[in-house]
Design a protein that fits this description.
Radius of gyration: 22 Å
CATH superfamily of the largest domain: Type I PLP-dependent aspartate aminotransferase-like (Major domain)
Strand content: 5-15%
Bound molecules: pyridoxal-5'-phosphate
CATH architecture of the largest domain: 3-Layer(aba) Sandwich
Shape: globular
Helix content: 25-40%
Number of strands: 14
Order of helices and strands: HEEEHHEHEHEHEHEHEEHHHEEHHEEH
Number of helices: 14
């Protein structure tokens, strides 16, 4: 098997092209998240469950563009819809079009908490717009979000995703720390950080700040710290406490929306927020797919022009055509799509659990439907962010590298996760598990040798 190892001798063009990219694009590519890790990939093309780099190496893709490509790479119905729109209709109108109605209607029907919608251009924009809307509706400024959650890279919400724990204070009442440099100190004052899955501390914070708290901005499943599902009663409790204190509940369903079920995590857990943000899966990989929406009385602030939301490209027909085609598959083929995603994810998770157990590698795999992550070094459930932070990242990093070198790709940051898509089949599951077994043995042996000082 190791004859096919994707080592440096198989990455010649990749390294050349990446160096060229670095000359003109700061860092080599346009997202900090994609620069994490040491082995560059320069893409040639994607097809179904695979992508191919410029050296012709094939990888089974469990990252699927950080989640959007729920039908895999180059899904024909979506490509056809986009091509038809741009060749027969055009790319940009800045006037309403039937697609506004069609896509809007489908989102409103699918997501319980959305009566009306607005389109945005990215998840970050959608969550920013939702925060502004909540502030306008309540007349209050502050937003409570969780340590370890990620709602985008903008000033308004880029706090405490992976904070330096020495500076982050107590687990139940963490300090607000900017995720990167350049965020004004004044914005920090508008964000309060809490502890996901700790309802008591959340209640204390909400009650104490009710007079100045506009909303709780919550991923319903903490999906940017690996996968941390809500404990029973947590989301229900949040809903109740928000209602009792005149605070809105915003669900950031950028990852979970149209993925863990058609109606998202709010449908899965039967907790309905006031405002919901969706992106990623809703467009099946169509760039710019994002929306936010909520109760009509809240969304009316947009219609009345009380709250500023816009964007030259918001609701452009090219993106809407892709979203429309994706929604048609997700809605009309609901049973088959979600059944398949869960079957693939379950097979992977079961297989991985078996491999780690057989090799005596302590590892906890956390899964919700089609997404999962492994926390090395844990035997039992990971329910808190700081537990996730305490997982064995050295093992994870080495394990990821060994898998990538054998053509199985998932992100090398253990706070990302594995995603199933409809293009994955038992063939990709079998091959991936074979590689994962090899990688597990190699890393375990290497670390044992290192710790024995050999
Ligand atoms: C939960 C969550 N919210 C918001 C965002 C931001 O979305 P985008 O990258 O489209 O701006 C992300 C991105 O990964 C996310 O995972």
């Amino acid at each position: 098997m190791d004859d096919n190892l994707i080592d440096d001798s198989h990455l010649v063009k990749t390294r050349e092209m990446f160096a060229k990219c670095q000359e003109v694009v700061s860092g080599g590519e346009s997202s900090y998240a994609r620069l994490i890790g040491t082995r560059p990939i320069v893409m040639e093309r994607g097809e179904g469950a695979y992508f191919y780099d410029v050296d012709g190496n094939a990888y089974i893709d469990w990252c699927i563009g950080y989640g959007p490509m729920i039908f895999g790479h180059r899904p024909k119905p979506i490509l056809d819809a986009i091509v038809a729109q741009i060749t027969q209709g055009g790319m940009l109108y800045t006037f309403p079009h039937e697609l506004d109605y069609e896509v809007g209607r489908k989102i409103v029907q699918a997501v319980p908490g959305i009566d009306q919608v607005r389109f945005a251009n990215s998840g970050s924009e959608a969550t920013q717009a939702a925060m502004r809307l909540a502030r306008a509706y309540t007349g209050k400024d502050k937003i409570l979000k969780w340590e370890g959650s990620y709602s985008g890279f903008l000033d308004c919400h880029a706090f405490s995703h992976v904070p330096a724990l020495e500076a982050a204070g107590r687990e139940r009442f963490p300090r607000t720390l900017p995720s990167q440099a350049g965020i004004p100190k004044a914005v920090e004052e508008t964000i309060i950080i809490g502890c996901f899955n700790d309802l008591d501390s959340a209640e204390t914070i909400i009650k104490r700040n009710a007079h100045q708290l506009a909303a709780v901005l919550s991923e319903p499943i903490l999906a940017d710290a690996g996968i941390i599902p809500p404990e029973p009663g947590f989301l229900e409790g949040l809903r109740r406490i928000c209602d009792e204190n005149g605070v809105l509940l915003i669900f950031d369903e950028i990852i979970t929306g149209f993925r863990v079920s058609l109606g998202g995590a709010q449908e899965l857990y039967d907790v309905i927020p006031d405002i919901t943000c969706v992106a990623k899966a809703v467009g099946g990989g169509t760039p710019g797919s994002a929306a936010f929406g909520g109760k009509k009385e809240i969304m009316e602030l947009e219609a009345d022009g009380v709250v500023l939301h816009g964007g030259t490209y918001s609701g452009n027909p090219m993106t809407l055509a892709g979203m429309n085609a994706a929604l048609d598959i997700l809605i009309n083929d609901r049973e088959r799509v979600y059944g398949h995603l869960n079957t693939i994810a379950n097979a992977m998770v079961q297989g991985m659990r078996g491999i780690f157990a057989e090799n005596g590698v302590p590892a906890y795999i956390s899964q919700v439907g089609p997404m999962w992550q492994v926390f090395f070094g844990h035997e039992g459930p990971v329910t808190r962010y700081r537990q996730a932070r305490a997982s064995d990242t050295r093992f994870f990093g080495m394990f990821q590298t060994e898998c990538q070198m054998r053509g199985v790709y998932f992100h090398n940051f253990n706070f990302e996760r594995f995603f199933a898509c409809t293009a994955h089949t038992q063939t990709e599951v079998d091959r991936s598990l074979e590689v994962i077994a090899t990688a597990t043995k190699i890393v375990k042996d290497r670390l044992s040798t290192l710790s024995a000082g050999v």
